[in-house]
Amino acid sequence: MAVIQIILWILTVYVGIGVFYNFFYAIACLLPRKGKIEVQSNPSRIAVFIPGYKEDSVIYHVAKKAAAHDYPENSFDVYVIADSFEETTLEKLRQLPVELREVSFEKSTKAKSLNQVMGRIEEEYDIAVILDADNEMDKGVLHKINSAYCSGFMAIQCHRTAKNANTHISRLDGLSEEINNSIYRKGHVRVGLSSALIGSGMAFDYKLFKNVMSEIDVISGFDKELEIKLLLEKVKVCYLEDADVYDEKVQSSETLKNQRSRWLASQVSFALKYYMLGWKKFFSEGNINLLDKTIQHTLLPRAFALVAMATLGSISFLFGETSLSLWIFRIFLLFTLAMFLAIPKRLYTLHTLNALLHLPFALSSMVASLFNMKKAKKTFINTPHHHFEEDEEEQGS
Prior knowledge:
- The chain has helices at residues 2-28, 59-67, 87-93, 110-120, 141-150, 168-190, 206-213, 222-232, 253-285, 288-298, 302-318, 322-342, 350-356, 359-368, 373-378, 389-396, and strands spanning 46-53, 76-83, 99-103, 127-130, 136-137, 155-162, 202-205, 237-247.
- The protein is of the alpha/beta class.
- Helix 1 (2-28) runs antiparallel to helix 11 (302-318), helix 8 runs parallel beside helix 9 and helix 11 runs antiparallel to helix 12 (322-342).
């Protein structure tokens, strides 16, 4: 009995640390913004990279909108990196004012695609912008990126937000994205730390990005590896919370399971790889941003924290551990408050409430992702995307 009690308390403390971490940054995201980036009129040369793997259903529309972005036409180029696209899609893309680059690998990854194409580019650029094949930039995004770059920021994360909310799963996925934005980006920047990267809607000093990417060859989670390498060089990531990049949210529980298994596999991998290095660099160089990132990788994702609290609470109740049950309840209340603070006020709607009623089904899919991790470590699991213009128009109305 004593051994079980010790294990339960250790697990409760572990979950509690993660909940307090989220609560601290949820509070921090409410702090006033520090400083202001001055608008720059002199346009830098920008290369917009859109790597895609079998993204035939969305790439033409996305590439067309990117090429028509409201930035001086002679100051930016759009590179569509086509991996395993159909010939009919390639023909359509060739009609657009974009640079089409075809790639092929035995095992495809985003890092390989980017590295191969950048290795062949002879043009000179100041900034590299990375989009996913389903991403669409809001008006003025490249101007805002240019202003941040000209203000001295070498790494920039835009505000990635949901493009669709057509299913309960997509609404929950969009809600999770905004909570991440509040905690891992906005909250961090408010206390003077580096923003987290998110894989797309990102911009970097071109030479820096090209050099760092040349050292990266991972199946998934290239943004995590990139972030670690930037933090090792003490490059701080700026967060542009008013530069919206619209991202398609997953629409089914099966897709959610596959996506989360990929994310979870990369998180576990980076936690094991960099945890001790984070502490070493903190004590030797005072690198608090790297330490924060490596600690972040060791914490339970929110979905698993919820499941853990429910499981620990049930077990402690069955074993008559009243004191432990009370602490788990307190941790749950803190977790709930943190989520309440991190959710943007614009999402306090009946649609969100209705989506939250389906949270148990989403949680079951995320727990199921644990059993898919082995596959995710060895093979790139692509998230399918769709083009649904009607839904976008409805959201804008």
